[in-house]
Amino acid sequence: MEAFLEVRDVTKAFPGVLANDRVNLSLQAGEVHAILGENGAGKSTLMKLIYGLYQPDAGEIRLEGKTMHFQSPRDAIRAGIGMVHQHFMLIPALTVADNVVLGEEPGRIRYDRKEAVRRVRALSEQYRLAVDPTAKIGSLSVGLQQRVEILKAFYRKAKVLILDEPTALLTPQETEELFEVVRHLKSQGIPVLFISHKLDEVRAIADRVTVMRAGRTVETVPVAGATAQELANLMVGRDVVLRIDKQPASPGRAVLDVRDLAVVGDDKQERVRGVSFSVHAGEIFGLAGIDGNGQFELVDAVAGLLRVARGSIHLDGEDISHLTPAQRIAQGMSYVPQDRQLDGLVLEFDLVENTILRDFRRRPFSRAGWLQRLPALRHTERLMERFDVRPRNPERRAGELSGGNQQKVILAREVSRNPKLLIVAQPTRGLDVGAIEGIHRELIRLRDAGTAVLLVSLELDEILSLSDRIGVIHHGRLVDIVSAQTATREQIGLLMTGTQAPGGSEEVFNT
Ligand SMILES: Nc1ncnc2c1ncn2[C@@H]1O[C@H](COP(=O)(O)OP(=O)(O)O)[C@@H](O)[C@H]1O
Ligand SMILES: [Mg+2]
Q1: Residue 273 belongs to a domain with what CATH number?
Q2: What is the mean pLDDT of residues 261-281?
């Protein structure tokens, strides 16, 4: 059977990168086809080729059996291709209807706004994309703005819909609603190309999946026959460990000791309300909680970024409650903050400078007050190799890297300092499975080397798979501390909502 849309041996190079290398893809009528690949695999480039934003260097794109030569998205849209980009392209000050019809307004001489509203309402019913045509875009949630983008495509009579990482900015609820829309489109015979780097999503929504890696299409398989593990391996190109094996911890002395800590937020509210715990050498202490329950204020206070309102923080027996962040770092503390762009990297600096940011006054990076570029460069190269930072160019400015690679640079820097205490907040947010595995391994390696690790994450699975003990925070209070060996997801989930397990919990070693 002739495919609805077919990409044959398409190649596209950018200076220094072969973004698409003889890519093949065949989209059948009425299927949801996922393109799965890590960041940088070439997914968006392929979609932009299909949408006429780029022209292929070689190969061809066929639609319903005919070779296409799109010079611009205008040509692609005219041929029936609809695309919703990773970043929306709507005008916030205009209404939904105005945005949908923009450039193809109804009305002979003057724009017939009533007619626009009527048509948009009809489309919105036909495609089950409920949204008020008269609402201002700026007042809509991200999920609703995305619907408007989809409506725009169908107003222009799209016969196929391309969604590029459509769930990146959606809440779980909005994601489920989007999936409903996709299922409805499928039932109407409209094929959907669904781009993602998330395994679970692909498995939930797609009929077939084409895996891309390093600019190539690796394989196309039916989703029903593929396990998460198989897909992860195809995506990364080797056996990926979705859950890290680790030996039981052998904890030593208490490195961090937090006593009755209270922290007041910017709004003068007490965000951390009398928290006590300790983190021992050679253990990972995970702090679980729903966002906004004081966990990030807690670690900011330990790192010295927020003032201690009450209580104390001891590092290796010494009271550091009132030291500056720099003094704490000098005492052997490392911090990987949640907001890497704000606190973690200097975006205008290159990777060498960022890597030695904390240690540039020390040997071997400095001698008699002079910066030693070569040792710093070598050190950076080694770290980039070990943490698989891409592209492997130490002279890139940090700001030019993808978010995932920025995160790897920060972790590499902090981990390589062999700190006594490492605080990590959301270490794998936004990263690919392959990168997550690497970072989890490094954290466990550091633990096994005797570092005390304080981990904060909103991903319960990450807390469960890494931690030796888990503290659960709710409303600024530590509700309980449990052993990760015996804790269950359900138990921690309940604690996160502030519900104590009946009969209280077992005693776990403390202080
Ligand atoms: N316009 C461009 N100019 C230069 N390089 C680009 C451009 N677009 C993408 N790239 C590079 O091509 C590769 C593939 O990128 P992309 O298609 O965006 O991947 P994905 O969407 O899978 O994350 C990356 O190395 C990226 O840096
Ligand atoms: Mg992309």
Answers
A1: 3.40.50.300
A2: 94
